Amino acid sequence: MLVLAAALAAVHFGAPALYLLYLRAAPKKPLQTAAIYPKVAVVVPTYNEARNIEAKLEDVYSQSYPRDRMSIYVVDSASTDGTAEAAERWAAGRRDVRVVVLREPKRRGKAHALNTALAHLADEEVVVITDADSRWLDRDTLRRAVAYLAAADAVSCLKRPAGGGPTEEAYRTWYNRLRLAESLVHSTPVFHGELAAFRREAIAGGFPEDVGADDSYAAIRIAAAGGRAVTPPDVWCIEAVPQRGYPTWRLRRAQHLIQAFARALPNVAKAPPPYRVILAAEAYLHLFNPWLLPAAAALAAASGPPGLALLAAGAAALLYKPYRAWAAGQIYLMAAALRNIWNKE
Ligand code: GDD
Ligand code: MN
Q1: Which atom of ligand 1 is closest in space to residue 113's alpha carbon?
Q2: Which residues contact 204 (CB under 8 A, 6 or more apart)?
Q3: Does ipTM come in above 0.95?
């Protein structure tokens, strides 16, 4: 039993290590940029974002991207706090940028709102989705993101946490490193609502309305079909880490990612080879690998003193910050998989 416990633990920790080695060894496709200025639609979906919407619009407005090449679409889904009115007021005071406020009569989720926006676009060639409660790092963020679309089909950002503790920082550092490494090999399957930029034709089919991580799922679909979806080294977003309700927030994020990877599993076989490894590894790491940890712990606990000694060593390792961040991540993924059974949100 102890041998089995040790084997499960070895797979649990070995799989991500092997994956990192693969990413390091695999041939790289450099990320190329060009100073292109296609017409861009910046889409901001909103549900009760009166607190954030003006600052968000101001942030987009103050980007260095040419204003006559940019339109802002706010898609509001029947907010009850006056978000749409606030957006309209803001737009009335800014005559040098095109702003369209779309109102959905009923709230049917972010993806539904994005699809509404897609149906109302003019002749924009690029669609950039950004959450109302998010901020870009600086005023060149949009310009830099779009420059990568010269050679890629979709571009997202790396994330800098604001207000999170050391565990959140350790988690993000690794997460960013992975996203970047995957992007250099081919594509990353994890995109972010803070900034998800697409060539318009790459999302012509719209967003699925039953997958929480609409952005990641879109990126997966694009890369699996042979396109490229990347997070470059110099496109950053600030992520406001909630001070209250942190566990709920992490849980919800994990639920969304699990939905996207579960839905993406049939794409693995179709994906081009270097991306097939990435998608298969990430799907495995999100959906299956976490469960090996409690299985190994239970087997170890049941196998007497040597097993208990092994468990104690594992518990002591929690003093080490990156390991603690890893263990917390595994717990969120398992809890999220369970919660998805009755509440997909
Ligand atoms: N129009 C509309 N209708 N907008 C909505 C709705 C809706 O029903 N629900 C949420 N939104 C808007 C919010 O107002 C916000 O601007 C944005 O969609 C994201 O919603 P949050 O509630 O802030 O989502 P989150 O922070 O948990 O998750 C975000 O980040 C994830 C990871 O980057 C989302 O963007 C996810 O799609 C993303 O995967
Ligand atoms: Mn948010």
Answers
A1: 1
A2: none
A3: yes
